[in-house]
Design goal:
Elements (H helix, E strand, L loop, with lengths): L2 E5 L11 H9 L2 E4 L2 H11 L5 E3 L6 H13 L1 E4 L13 H9 L4 E4 L4 H9 L6 E6 L4 H11 L5 E7 H14 L5 E5 L7 E5 L1 H10 L5 E6 L9 H16 L1
Parallel strand pairs: 1-4, 1-5, 2-3, 2-4, 6-7
Antiparallel strand pairs: 7-10, 8-9, 8-10
Helix pairs in contact: 6-7, 7-8
The structure holds S-adenosylmethionine.
Length: 244
């Protein structure tokens, strides 16, 4: 039936797609995708010949309106090059507008590099904060690391091979002593997950330039991070003890 179907696709291993995702892609009137060559390969592998329309980061308001008109009339799937749409990928504005107009939106879950990396690396998984890509320049990166460094959660970032060593060096400087994990080429032949301090990982990757796609994770701060109210209470009890 008409509506927008957000469909997760594999992040490397072509087997990682759900039965429902295949059914929806096959039954859709159109598949909106970032790159018709990339999605074309997946569809070809699955034996699906649904037509594709381009919808990427450069999509204009007019492109979106055209797609929304179709969504009101027929089932339209949204996929990205890999993994879950909207997760560091296009789709947010489309979903938001579709919902504002009361159009049906359904999400067909599947792989996302962030959750695959988290479940693999052995860092605490009870609380995590996904923060997309780290800024490309050192200054911006250190600002983000400092901003999020006190959050009592495992931090998850997407990263690129050429920038990994610089990011690890900035991490060693801004948040020393933290457990760090680097997950690379998830679900693919050369999948790797390496843990250690930022210094250890930086020195490893300096001599082994990392190829492929990367997720960088930072374990939560070791010492308990206390809130203002808790700090006040501690100070007051110290003062009381002093008076006595
Ligand atoms: N929407 C995707 C998802 O759900 O994972 C992420 C898209 S984002 C543009 C691409 C980034 O995701 C890559 O630069 C890398 O950091 C991460 N990534 C995607 N596939 C990966 C894989 N197989 N192994 C490690 N990281 C991956």
């Amino acid at each position: 039936s008409p509506g927008l179907y957000i469909v997760a696709t594999p992040i490397g291993n072509l087997g990682d797609i759900t039965l429902r995702a295949i059914e929806v892609l096959r039954g859709a009137a159109a598949i909106a995708c970032e790159d018709t060559r990339v999605t074309g390969k997946l569809l070809n592998h699955l034996g699906i010949d649904t037509r594709m329309v381009r919808y990427d980061d450069h999509a204009s308001d007019t492109d979106r309106e055209r797609l929304l008109t179709r969504i009101a009339q027929e089932p339209v799937a949204l996929v990205s090059d890999a993994g879950t749409p909207l997760i560091s990928d296009p789709g947010y504005r489309l979903v938001r507008t579709a919902r504002e107009r009361g159009l049906p939106v359904t999400s067909i879950p599947g792989a996302s590099a962030a959750t695959v990396a988290l479940t693999l690396c052995g860092l605490p998984s009870d609380r995590f904060l996904f923060a997309g890509f780290l800024p490309p320049k050192s200054k911006g990166r250190k600002d983000v690391l400092r901003e999020l460094g006190n959050v009592a959660a495992t931090l998850i970032f997407y990263e690129t091979g050429p920038r990994l060593c610089d990011s690890l060096a900035d991490l060693a400087e801004t948040l020393p002593g933290r457990d760090v994990a680097v997950a690379r080429e998830l679900t693919k032949r050369f999948e790797e997950c390496r843990t250690g301090s930022a210094e250890e990982l930086a020195s490893h990757y300096r001599t082994h330039p990392p190829k492929g796609e990367i997720v960088l994770m930072i374990g939560p701060p070791g010492e308990k991070v206390i809130g203002a109210a808790e700090a006040d209470a501690m100070l007051l009890s110290e003062l009381a003890a002093h008076k006595a």
